[in-house]
Each structure stands twice: as C-alpha cells, then as structure tokens.
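Dear support,

We are seeing what looks like truncated structure output for some complexes. This example has two components. We would appreciate it if you could run it in full and send us the complete token output so we can diff it against ours.
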Amino acid sequence: MDNQTFTLEDLKRILREGAGADESVDFDGDILDTEFEDLGYESLALLETCGRIEREYAITLDDSVVGEVRTPRRMVEVVNEHLGQTAPA
Amino acid sequence: MSTGTPRAVVTGLGITAPNGLGTEAYWAATRVGKSGIGRITRFDPSAYPARLAGEVPGFTASEHLPSRLMAQTDHMTRLALVATDWALADAGVVPADLPPYSMGVVTASSSGGFEFGQGELQKLWAEGSQYVSAYQSFAWFYAVNSGQISIRNGMKGPSGVVVSDQAGGLDALAQARRQIRKGTRLVVSGSVDASICPWGWVAQLAGGRLSTGDDPGTAYAPFAPSAAGHVPGEGGAILVVEDEAAAAERGATVYGHLAGYGSTFDPAPGSGRPPGLRKAVELALDDAGLAPGDIDVVFADAAAVPELDRVEAEALNAVFGPRGVPVTAPKTMTGRLYSGAAPLDVATALLAMREGLVPATVTVEPDPGYDLDLVTGQPRVMTVRHALVLARGHGGFNSAAVVGAP
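Here is the complete output from our reference environment:
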C-alpha cells in the first residue's frame, strides 16, 4: 500500500459502506463539487466516513474535517494531503 | 364525550408480527389460531436455557428501506419504519401533504436497538473504539424509532417515547390521545420491539420470566396450571391516531377510537396494599364513561407467571364478576412483544370489531380455579363494541385501555 492516493471512487465506496447512498442522487454523475448535504449526507455520515478513512489508510484526520469539508473534491484533497505527510520520504 | 374534547380515532394499522407480516397476513393467521412461535433462528440458541421465540417471518428490510437508513438502523427500527409506511398508506395519509407541525410521533420502547448495539460492542472489544459506528450514538436508543419515523415522514409536531416495558405500548397510545386533545391533528403511535439476539436474550433471561419449554404448543401457557413463564417475540403494531374531525374532513375510514385509559403503579412489595391492576381497569372504564357490562371482551396481559396470572384473574373477577366477560390472549400466538404487545392487541381488537370475531387463546388448557371465561380452542363469533386491553410492565407498571368501535 505504498504511494497511496485517495480517489473519488475510494470516497464513494467508503460512503456507501458506512452510510449508504441516497437513491435519488446520481452517484456516477459529476459530484466532485456537490456539497455532501445535497448528496444526502449529514454530519454523522461524515463522521462515520472519516472514521473509516482513518482506519483504512492509517491516518488521523483533524476533528474539524467533519464540520469544514463540504464537498467530495475537498475531502479527496484533505485525505491526500495526509497521505503525503505520512508517506515515507 | 363533551364537545370540547376531540375524540382520537384510529385510521391506519401497520402490523409486523411473528404470525404474520402485514395486517392481512396477521389477521388471516390470528383469526384461525395460527402461531408464529418456534425455535430461534436469528442466532443459535442451543446453549441458552430458553430457546423459543416469536420471530417476524419474511422481512427483508432492504426491500422496503433505502440504503441510507439500512446503515443506521437496528432491526426493530426497520420493522417500525416499514410498519409506519403501511399504517400511513392504510390510513390514506400522505405526510408531505400535511403541515409538518400538525403531525407527531409517540412510540414506546422496552430495550432499544440491542442487535445493532451488540454488533458495535463486539467491534469495540475485538477491534477497538475506532471501529464503532458513529450511528451507535442513536441506533440503540429508546427514542430512535420515534426519531426515525419523524425524520422519514417529516413529522415535526409533539413527539416522544415512553419506556415502561410492556405497559408502555398503552402509555404511548394514551400520550398520542393527549396530543390529539391538545390540538395535534395526527399522531403516529404504537410500538415495535425486537431484541432476539444473544445480548438481548441474556438480558431477558436475567429477568427470570422466560419459559424454558421447547414445545411451541405449550411453552407459553398463561392462566394454565402449567404456566411457567413466557416466550418473547418481536414486532408490534404502528397505529395512525387522528383527531376525529380531521379524519372525517378527509373522508378517512375509521377502525375505532381510543375511548379510555388508566394507569397505576404497584405498591412496594411487603406494603400489604393490593396490586394496582384492578384500579387501572376501573380508571380506564371511568375515563371511557362506561360500566363493566359495556365491555365485550378483554385482551389480557397474560404474563404466564402463576402469581401474575392470579393477580390479573382476581382484578378481572373483581370488576366483571367470575366468568363475567370473555377474555382472550392472542399473544399466545406471537409471544410477548414487550412494548409492541399492547398496540398489537389494540389493533387486534379493532380487527375483531370489524369482523365480529374474537381470536382464541392458543396453547392453553385454562386452570378452572381462575374463574375466567377464556376464549380457547375456537375463535368466538360475537359483536364487539368495546374491548379492554391490559398491559403490565416489569417493576409494577399497570395500564389499561378501552378501545371503542367507530
């Protein structure tokens, strides 16, 4: 699992596993900049999702991520920033 | 019946019971005495002293609920949400068409979401706290069914949960009636309970009232000389309770109304004062403005613990006279459903009124010493205008409700 990157597909998989997916949302459409709230996810769904990302990628996200990260694009960026920090030089 | 007090009528039923999923299947089984009690299949019960339960058959939650809800709900909540959908459809109510604050939700609960909670506790012990679902924060909780029903259906009026074991099923309906009287148009009420999982099972075993019999035909035998505890079940009934005028305005079909209610708490053991069940019955009759002779049938609490059976028989004989009223316990076909039991009995009473048929108490060769006119063997064809439903909760809760025909 060296040189990991976290993709939108990874995020969608983890969202589905931890919180399900709103049937009225087109998950395969362009959702990178759609706010999580509009995708049907409340803060608890994001808390669960962050927990699963932390476990799977062995990183620790700041508590503020749940409140401040509003879109999939930003979440993917934040997770990759952490992966970069923890990756071997 | 004063003009200032609006009547609370029942316009929709949603039933999830061990002997039938959905009102039609439940009534088809119940009217002919078909039991849903059997050996536990939800986990391997062979190492436990009690091995029978009433499990709801054929329920695949994902066929009824979106994945967003599947991730965050216990089995009991899934049953309650689906029962609510069915009750609202039965009532012809589309919640989105009504003002959110005109609709409330009042359910009961006895134990919360044990199966979900067990899974998360297992993750906690086996893998660590970071593996526990964020949804454990509410998925186990007593109030979760009311909350999820409220969110799914956009019901923002007066809501809550009552926790008083089996009595809670009637206490919730009484609270729903209170809210109707105070001006809420519609309240989703009743209750569904389910904790047939190892954690829930050991909690129930600790109560000391479970039957250890292995024969589904005889293990739960209230009012019988062989009574030796009850078989638990899962499920219950959700009822749409409405202000009578509001229901009439939209042309709703009415099953019946909540005519009376009374509740008491037993005195402390050793006080020498009598148990409170008789008083609860008298309060409910007074509240309904009825005399004992007006009651056509009693749906008994039916604890199947000899001392509790004796208390119930004595209360009924004191109010109605020996063999003074037909008594039945259809819960012998489902097991005791805890907070789900009494709402299911209320629903059953309403269905009995509609058909003119009182379902039988199965599994029972009654002890003649109780002097009860117990409906056994065959269902009884009779007109039912008023039914009395009794429910007692562990620790001294007694509740009684009178259900009236439309």
